[in-house]
Amino acid sequence: MDPAIARLLTSPDGWALVEAMPPYVEAEAMALGTSMRAQGVAPELVSGVLTQSRLRADARVKFGDFAAGMLLTQDGLEQATRLEVAARHAARFRDAGVTRVADLTCGIGADAMAMSALGLTVTAVERDEATALIADHNLRHWPEAQVVHADSTEVAAHLEVDGYFVDPARRNARGRRHDPQDYSPSLDWVLGLRDLHPAVGVKVGPAVAHDMIPPEVEAEWVSVDGSVVEASLWCGPLAHTPGHVALVLRDGQAHRIAGDTHRADTGDLGEYVYEPDGAVIRAGLIGAVADRTATHLIDESIAYLTANTAIDSPFMRGYRVVEVLPLKTKAIAAALKARNVGAVDIKKRGVDITPEQLRPQLKLRGTQRATLILTRMPGHRAALIVEPL
Length: 389
Known about the structure:
single chain; 389 residues; alpha/beta; Rossmann fold; 3 domains; 18 strands; 33% helix
């Protein structure tokens, strides 16, 4: 976003226009923009206001009703922490006795807002001028919060704080940066902040390589309603359990499992197959979940667990195995036709067939719906017709 647009949006007149916008409807946006320009609103402000209306609609997924009071940028919204997760970040600092936090590379201020709401004194640092203006607007309800337009690497050591939270930029013009040393700032720089204060938290990509994680920190992968949304490293007093942790947030409940990354045992396919939550898989805690649930892998290299009993666990989703087939299109199509299946949900791991390739080849015309798992098993590939528990 251009800083000039950010200044217009944060002005009293600009904010009043944003607040007056109706719920976003794409088909009506052009006519609404034409009407605003006809009333004398500057074209650049019209564009900015319409963009805010669209972004607010998208932001409800992360911020719920709070989105209605925020200004946003596209990049800032994509990287911002979800409200319920940001609240947990803030609680770590509060529970560790940290009272003054530097939120470095603060973006649009989602984490800084959560920290301020818990009574922490926040200094939010943002290098991009327009984003800093947006963050300052979003933090307007907390007079103690301060936004600094600066490069975090240049000012971090001079801030009067006792803890740091960092959400490095993990994208550039070419896309995502997967190597933590390519983050801005780099992971090594962030971890070096521990020499100033031991209480350091940093968001990393969920695909971060395990060998990049120092053994003394807590590495936590978080999923929300089945989707992995982030991974974070927590240092010093912010670490509850040094090692790997999966936090599963589902239906308003939080479920946490910690452990080492040992491999689960492998055995025969049982009457039920289980798909571990994505946070469990990313954290390398399939073995820990297998130990807790008395399950085992169906193949040593595939993240499906199995057992002969129905198990209710927040860390995995279960299916009853109805039929086991060879992974051949004709055999699968015949079995589904015999069951009058006309629609199929396809899951797959360890095979080079995509659902988009297979589905039209099945030529389904029935009235029932089924779930199909395509996977590798010791010595062969298989298709499992299953029923979700």
